């Protein structure tokens, strides 16, 4: 009846897991009880869970991403404390099997469920507003993408408490991930979570690419597109070219495990190298999919806080395109040591080094944007300065490893681990946090207290160096990645410093939590100086999203903006804004729909049932999903018109707020 699932799948004997489970259960029950007590289920369902509004989906993505950040960070804390202890005779507190699960969980969750989720949050919130659109091209598919991401995050976290987590790293290399070497369910959980979320991301890529191509406001030519949207555009192209490869890799691995095929085992004619090529021809572009939108965020922030147009807009766009191209043809640098031969390695090494050129162009463009500008060092600007320093260091160590001869020595050492955290934390993470603080007032209509953001930055910046510079040192001394204890006395002091570093990072996370708590407090109390009355919270916004009220009405733009060049809003501020709206028309909008959550629930059931071989539940899930899709296709009542009175009332309220803000100046 329940396939392989029995009570023995629940890890009662692991105190850390039992404790975590109790913690999660208590928080979960408290949230459910609070929603019930305040009678908010109806509101939650109607306004949030069934929404197809890109701005609300963005907020739900952010919440998911932040929860997963804490989750992934907890794993990092465990790894760092384990390695500070597990020296010489002391085995530490995490046995090898458990430690393997911890680094696998950390890598998988940080990449798929923190970084990718935050990136989709930014796409969702910013892209339609920057191009003057009322929503994305396919709003319902957008909601389905979100639910596919959400349920795969749930599925992979369920593996902690029912069964086990995968223990084969964030990329699930065979042969160790094959059934004969890994008979447990951890790898199956990994396969189905990555599969479902990967398809969700593919849909996001398709959706936003179409949106950017088709839904730009009248008059917005290609070279009028704001830089963040350009980076989203190129990231979507990479999503469309590479995520299908991930889907295929997971499908083939599943076939190996479920029906005894041998695509990736050398017996019977398969090849491990096939998997390596497939997974890295997705995996390398993936890291550029993550970094490009971060570059986009920095471009917006640099211009806004320097009070100048972005330096070298066209070169920024071209550099992004070149990185997209080069980033797609360098994947072999992840396995220089695995026998490709000198010629192949040379090609891939040189192509990798070339990426430093367009990236360097970007760094200099940001510097020139700041040069002779009236730079205001508010919260978001801190992250960009920290980023330029940190990311450049991480990029340089990447270039070092792009030399095959050097990589033979440092491949899979902690030097590598230091490199990629250097670019991921200093680039991707700093970028997304900067974006969060930059667009937060737009989303909610009030701003966060900057001082806590600045403290968060300071702790993250210092904490990063303390945690990861030691890893360069021990990496060069020969310490390999994924080790759970060691005997070398030279490494011990470095790993103690790294352990201190992670607690400094924890202080950074704490400041971020405090910042959110204060923001909620200020919003509830309607603290006057926290409210954003003008919609142009930073006073120097240049792109369209700053021209409309904060929080943004559900239809975004009362009248589709007319584009007057690059940075239309800035031009309007210089030359005078268009006359108040007299001729308003009803706005055509999509209705909310339960299809997203229903398909999400089906995905969760199907994924869980596939892991445990509960075949009847797989069939039930598929049938319900099929009926839902057919039912939706037959439903013609999917849209409505926003009445003119509602738009006029919103516009009048906004005009009053603008006048009040002007009078207060
Ligand atoms: C956001 C993520 C991200 C980014 C942006 C990068 C960027 C780069 N990476 Fe990194 N990398 C990873 C994430 C990332 N990487 C991950 C996750 C892994 C390991 C995965 C695993 O094994 O689990 C990895 C592994 C990895 C390897 C494999 C090593 C090994 O396994 O042994 C290599 C080798 O070539 C490499 C190289 C590079 C290079 C050359 C860049 C370049 O794009 C960097 C370019 C930037 C600069 C150079 C700085 C700015 C430029 C200037 C200031 C101009 C002047 C500079 C020069 C003239 C040099 N990376
Ligand atoms: C917040 C601070 C962070 C700390 C302290 C940290 C720490 C660590 C540690 C100790 C490891 C294991 C290294 C080893 O192999 O011995 C690791 C691996 C990894 N980390 Fe992080 N990390 C952090 C943030 C992130 C972020 C933000 C991401 C991605 C978005 C990330 C992605 C990864 C990946 C992909 C791995 C490799 C997992 C594997 O070996 O399969 N980390 N990290
Ligand atoms: Cu790479």
Describe what this molecule looks like in 3D.
- The model has no long low-confidence stretch (mean pLDDT 94).
- Strands 1-2 form a two-stranded antiparallel ribbon.
- The chain is globular.
- Helices cover 68% and strands 1% of the residues.
- The chain has helices at 15-37, 41-49, 54-85, 96-130, 139-161, 186-214, 227-259, 272-306, 313-327, 342-354, 356-370, 379-401, 404-410, 414-444, 450-476, 491-524, 568-575, 595-612, 615-634, 644-664; strands at 587-590, 639-642.
- The structure holds heme-A, protoporphyrin IX containing FE and copper (II) ion (CU).
- Protoporphyrin IX containing FE (HEM) binds next to α3, α4, α14 and α16.
- Keywords: Copper, Electron transport, Heme, Iron, Membrane, Metal-binding, Respiratory chain, Transmembrane, Transmembrane helix, Transport.
- Residues 39-564 form the Cytochrome oxidase subunit I profile domain.
- The chain crosses the membrane at residues 16-38, 59-83, 103-127, 139-162, 189-215, 227-254, 274-298, 310-334, 346-368, 380-402, 414-434, 455-474, 494-521, 598-627.
């Amino acid at each position: 009846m329940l396939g392989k699932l029995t009570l023995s799948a629940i890890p009662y004997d692991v105190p850390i897991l039992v404790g975590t489970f109790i913690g999660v259960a208590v928080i979960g029950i408290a949230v459910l009880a609070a929603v019930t007590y305040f009678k908010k289920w109806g509101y939650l369902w109607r306004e949030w869970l069934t929404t197809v509004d890109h701005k609300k989906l963005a907020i739900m993505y952010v919440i998911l991403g932040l929860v997963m950040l804490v989750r992934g960070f907890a794993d990092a804390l465990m790894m760092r404390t384990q390695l500070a202890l597990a020296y010489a005779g002391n085995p530490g507190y995490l046995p090898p099997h458990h430690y393997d699960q911890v680094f696998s969980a950390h890598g998988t969750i940080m990449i798929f469920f923190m970084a990718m989720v935050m990136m989709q949050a930014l796409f969702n919130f910013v892209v339609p507003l920057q191009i003057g659109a009322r929503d994305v091209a396919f709003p319902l598919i957008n909601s389905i993408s979100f639910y596919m991401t959400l349920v795969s995050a749930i599925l992979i976290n369920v593996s902690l408490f029912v069964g086990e987590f995968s223990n084969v790293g964030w990329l699930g290399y065979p042969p160790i991930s094959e059934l004969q070497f890994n008979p447990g369910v951890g790898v199956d959980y990994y396969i189905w979570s990555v599969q479902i979320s990967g398809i969700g991301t593919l849909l996001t890529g398709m959706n936003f690419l179409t949106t950017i191509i088709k839904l730009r406001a009248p008059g917005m030519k290609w070279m009028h597109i704001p830089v963040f949207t350009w980076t989203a555009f190129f990231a979507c192209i990479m999503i469309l070219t590479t995520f299908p490869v991930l889907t295929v890799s997971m499908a083939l691995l599943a076939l190996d495990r479920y029906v005894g095929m041998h695509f990736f085992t050398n017996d019977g004619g398969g090849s491990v190298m096939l998997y390596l090529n497939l997974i890295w021809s997705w995996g390398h572009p993936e890291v550029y999919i993550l970094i490009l939108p971060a570059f986009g965020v920095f471009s917006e922030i640099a211009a806004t806080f320097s009070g100048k147009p972005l330096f070298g807009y066209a070169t920024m766009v071209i550099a992004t395109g070149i990185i997209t191209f080069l980033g797609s043809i360098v994947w072999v640098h992840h396995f220089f040591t695995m026998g490709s031969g000198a010629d192949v390695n040379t090609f891939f090494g040189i192509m990798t080094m070339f990426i430093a050129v367009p990236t360097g162009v970007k760094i200099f463009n940001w510097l020139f944007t700041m040069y002779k500008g009236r730079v205001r060092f508010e919260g978001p600007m801190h992250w960009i300065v920290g980023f330029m320093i940190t990311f450049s260091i991480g990029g340089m160590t990447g270039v070092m490893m792009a030399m095959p001869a050097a990589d033979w020595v440092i491949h899979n050492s902690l030097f590598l681990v230091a490199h990629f955290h250097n670019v991921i934390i200093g680039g991707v993470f700093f970028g997304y946090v900067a974006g969060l603080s930059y667009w937060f007032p737009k989303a909610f209509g009030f701003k966060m207290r900057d001082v806590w953001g600045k403290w968060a930055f300071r702790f993250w910046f210092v904490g990063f160096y303390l945690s990861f510079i030691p890893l360069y040192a021990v990496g060069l001394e020969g310490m390999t990645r994924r080790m759970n204890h060691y005997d070398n006395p030279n490494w011990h002091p470095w790993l103690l410093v790294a352990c201190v570093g992670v607690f400094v990072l924890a202080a950074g996370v704490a400041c971020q939590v405090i910042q959110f708590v204060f923001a909620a407090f200020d919003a509830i109390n309607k603290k006057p100086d926290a409210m954003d009355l003008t919609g142009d919270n930073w006073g120097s916004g240049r792109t369209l999203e700053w021209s409309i009220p904060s929080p943004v009405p559900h239809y975004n733009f009362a009248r589709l903006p007319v584009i007057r060049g690059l940075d239309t809003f800035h031009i309007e501020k210089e030359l005078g804004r268009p006359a108040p709206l007299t001729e308003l028309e009803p706005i055509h909008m999509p209705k909310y729909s339960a299809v997203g959550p229903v398909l999400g629930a089906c995905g969760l059931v199907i994924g869980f049932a596939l892991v445990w071989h509960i075949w009847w539940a797989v069939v039930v899930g598929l049938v319900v999903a099929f009926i839902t899709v057919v039912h939706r296709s037959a439903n013609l009542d999917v849209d409505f018109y926003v009445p003119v009175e509602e738009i006029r009332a919103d516009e009048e309220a906004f005009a009053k707020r603008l006048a009040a803000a002007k009078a207060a100046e």
